[in-house]
Amino acid sequence: MVAGRFFDGQSSRARPALFCLGTGSLRIECDGHVREVAVADLEFALSRGRAPTRISLRGGGLCELADSPQTHVLLRALGARRTALERLESHRNAILGVLISFLALMALIWRWGIPLAADRIADRVPVAWESNLGAKALRQLDEGGVFRPSTLADARQARIRAAFARLRLPEGSTPGHIVFRRLGVPNAFALPGGTIVMADELVALAQDDDSALMTVLGHELGHIQARDGLRALVRATLFSTLAAWYLGDISSFVASAGAGITSLSYSRAAEAAADGYALQLMRANAISTRGAALLFRRLAGATTGRDGDQAQTASASAIPEYLSTHPDIQERIRRFERGTDASAVPP
Amino acid sequence: MEAVSPREHALQFTGEGSTYFRIWIVNLALTIVTIGFYSPWAKVRRLRYIYGNTLLDGSPFEFHGNPLALLKGRLIGVLLLVGYTQAAKVSLALWLVVVAAIAVALPWLLWKSQKFRLANSSYRGIRFGFDGTLRSAYAVFALPIVLFMAPYVCLAALGLNGAPARQPGAAVFAPVALLFLLLALAYPWIFLRVYRYFHARARIGSARFSFSASLAGAYGLAFSALGLFALAMVLALLLGTIAGLAVSWIARHGAWIWPGAAAVDPGVSGRADSVIGISAGFIAGYMVVLCVYPIFAALKQNFLWGKTALDGAPLQSRAQGMALLRIAAANALLMLLTLGLYWPFALMRSLRYQLGVISWTGDPERIVAQGGDAAVSATGEETMELLGLDFSL
Fold it and tell me: What does the alpha-carbon distance between residue A88 and residue A98 come to, in Å, rounded to a whole number?
């Protein structure tokens, strides 16, 4: 016999009641009346804490039972069972297991799942979409004042463009298209779709060495062939979607999905591949990559005020963007000094 | 019979972080394993726990929503969202068509959402209900929706069509600025109108809610928000400057305080330390501004619930800004330290406070059911959540 409260479903008046097991039914004694309700007509909401357990009767009526050992006995006799999930959740070790698997799964998705999915999605994006995306990004960066119009002499621009146009690309390559802008830092990057943004500052740092700039452009062409920009964009979108979901705010995903194109960075593997492409391209076009090695040295040196060899010890925040994704800058410089693509040479 | 003086019944929240954590983590795991399809079931489990642990006079509220119904609404919501984001990429005209379609559907969705949420809630076996009609939804929301969308549509039309204006003149942006100003000025009116619609047409059984907040009150709330914000900005500027100066000074001279400072190569930069200083200043300032939110949440909650009555008896809400701020600050810190795993505990903690300060001077014994409370579809409910509009507490 368990004491509790009964509500008739018509009024919120609480009536003290006694509950006990009938024959395949719940016996409710209330206000001097006794009624029996078949187990099939009961619906249980079992308490998981200090709130009372509820038993709803089909056709109206609600019983409230405080948590007690007798209540448990009665509920068990009535065949009230927790759901499988609720039972799982009552085991400390099971929860620990779920927690660990969840964290592992998140790490797995973060580290491998999203990059893999991004690559698969990027492969299916039509080229027209990609160029549209790049054009839009360029317009946003121009209008947003991130980029300023180039102040480079027309003749210099034309010379670089001409040298770039003379490069013979492998069959079936996507051609690049250079735009000059003032970025405030010596930098160059490829937008999705084939546009290469070249900073006035980088041209200035290259002094009159066009071969160095061709190597840089070759590197960017490498990114364009691999569609690295699109990949990174898809990846960033997936990351922010996952983060937004975890933080429980789906609405912010819309805002963040399109943003951040300039802050994208490629993986080291993608950078190394782009370097490899540049090296092969330069060799095919008989252009030395020593100029580029010198340019990178200058880039690294410009930040430390010393020899480039110490670039690695400099504070990371002071390294210009173009190099910041390359912790192995010295290795890169050596690769361009050798002028051969070590990774392409068969062992 | 003697006259019984009205007793105050406070809401009591009995949810526990340790229990809710279990529900939450299992929900998360199942949602990710099913690539999101479990989320309606997760939501029902979450709401059942929260409702079931919100007690009035010892009796919990109950949520009866059907996950399958929620799933349907969620799919519609995803479609709307995708349509909205993708249409802009195709053309301005298509985007405008989608926006117009959403604007037309919105009152219906809001109405459905509220109807679903209330029809699936109960107290002591008596269902809640929502008596607003669809016609009244359109009457109430038409003007607010136009006010909300006008500046954005105007902005999009300027930005998307034709040649980009390099230096857009004031003449171009004046109408947009004016529309935003109008929206800001009308905001308290919209806020009041929307909440009045939702609160004043709700009921438990046949006991009706009413909402007596005045327009002056809504503008008062808006002005206190502005005042709070202004105060926070001044404080932020002050604190941010002090923090910035202190940190940059330490970065420059303070190797003896903070060994890491030595790593900032003096040759690299007369700039690095000032960059660190400015960042520190910004972070400090931003944190001061963040403090406004819980304080405002307390004011808003008190305004909304304090002006609501049920069955002719008023509700009271006595949330204190500083108390909520303390809870929010501790929650934020612990969530940062645990990469968000503290969230279920944080939620239980703030609900315990926010619900616990609400009380009602009515009689929980005399609510009577109303016949014909039928089940309604969940379409509106889920769609609204995806669009980021949730009008419940």
Answer: 10
- Helix A268-284 with A210-226: angle, nearest 10 deg: 120
Contact assignment for A98 to B388 by CB distance below 8 Å: no
Among all residues of chain A, which has the CA nearest to that of B271?
A318
Tell me the chain B residues in contact with residue A313 when contact means C-beta distances shorter than 8 Å: 265
In B127-271, which ranges are continuous DSSP H helix? 134-160, 170-200, 215-253
Name the residue facing A315 among B14, B23, B264 (closest C-beta). Answer: B264
Residue in chain B lying closest to A315 (CA): B264
Assess: ipTM above 0.85: no
The model carries a pTM of 0.78
A257 touches chain B (CB under 8 A): yes
Chain A hits for B164, Cβ within 8 Å: 139, 142-143
For residue B368, which residues of chain A lie inside 8 Å, CB to CB?
Answer: 10-12
Q: Which of residues 36-65 of A touch B (CB under 8 A)?
A: 45, 47-52, 54, 56, 60-62, 64
Sign (positive/negative) of CA torsion B29, B30, B34, B39?
negative
Q: Which residue, among B258, B288, B285, has the nearest Cα to B273 in the 3D structure?
A: B258
B140's tokens: 């109430």
CA distance B28 to B41: 11
Q: Dihedral of CA A136/A139/A143/A144: which sign?
A: positive
Closest by CA position to A40, among listed A18, A28, A25: A25
Plot region of A305 (φ>0 → left; ψ -120 to 50 → alpha; else → beta): left
Helix (H) or strand (E) holding B62: strand B59-63
Cα–chain-centroid distance for residue B103? 20
Q: CA–CA separation, A157 vs A161, rounded Å?
A: 6
Tokens 């509106």 belong to residue? B380
Closest CA to A325 of A267, A254, A241: A267
In A79-205, which residue ranges form alpha helices assigned H by DSSP? 84-89, 92-108, 114-124, 127-143, 154-166, 200-205
List the domains of chain A with CATH numbers. 2-89 (2.30.29), 126-344 (no CATH)
Phi, psi for residue B368 in degrees, rounded to 5:
-120, 140
User: Nearest-CA neighbor of B313 among B366, B271, B352?
Assistant: B366
Measuring CA to CA, which residue among B317, B341, B332, B327 is closest to residue B393? B317
Q: To probe the interface with B, which of A6, A7, A48 has the most B CB atoms within 10 Å?
A: A48
A337 Cα to chain B: minimum distance (Å): 26
Give me the tens of pLDDT residue by residue for chain A, a chain 347 residues long.
Answer: 899 999 988 899 999 999 999 888 999 999 889 999 999 999 999 988 889 999 999 878 899 998 889 999 999 999 888 889 999 998 999 999 999 999 999 889 888 888 888 889 888 888 888 888 888 888 888 887 778 899 999 999 999 999 999 988 888 888 888 999 988 778 888 888 888 999 898 898 888 888 889 998 999 999 888 888 888 888 888 887 777 777 654 333 333 433 443 345 567 778 888 888 888 899 888 888 888 888 888 877 655 444 433 333 333 333 344 444 454 677 778 888 887 654 444 33
